[in-house]
Design brief:
By secondary structure, the chain is an all-beta fold. Helix content is about 0%, strand content about 50%. The chain has no helices and eleven strands. The strands form two sheets. Strands 2, 4, 5, 6, 9, 10 and 11 form a seven-stranded mixed β-sheet that branches. The chain is globular and about 40 Å long. The termini are far apart.
Length: about 110
């Protein structure tokens, strides 16, 4: 069983930046896949960034060029730049481990004037 705790969310103005962190209860190297998802009211949860090896990351087209996914041995990060109002959502950390899927409770992000 894996516990995931996100942090770093909050409020920002359009064009601003935030850095989200995820601290799992196991070493990052134990996971087959790590990723960040987000969900806005009235929308389905969407995958925005993922990495299997911590070196190469894939990004959704809506955020590519504005975010950077990275990780070390103990944390998964999401650097968000040039924020837009449509980025407002609850952002959740995801890992795949031992054939199962895990999400954290999420950290809310609000982008507005």
């Amino acid at each position: 069983q894996v516990q995931l705790v996100e942090s770093g969310g909050g409020s920002a103005q359009p064009g601003g930046s935030l850095r989200l962190s995820c601290a799992p209860s196991l070493s990052m190297s134990r996971f087959a896949l790590t990723a960040w998802y987000r969900q806005s009211p009235g929308k389905e949860r969407e995958l925005i960034a993922s990495t299997a090896d911590g070196t190469t990351a894939g990004y959704d087209g809506s955020v590519k060029g504005r975010i950077i996914l990275s990780r070390d041995n103990t944390n998964l990060y999401l650097q968000m730049n040039n924020l837009k109002p449509e980025d407002t959502a609850v952002y959740s950390c995801y890992v795949a481990y031992d054939g199962k899927h895990y999400w954290g409770q999420g950290t809310p992000v609000t982008v507005s004037y």
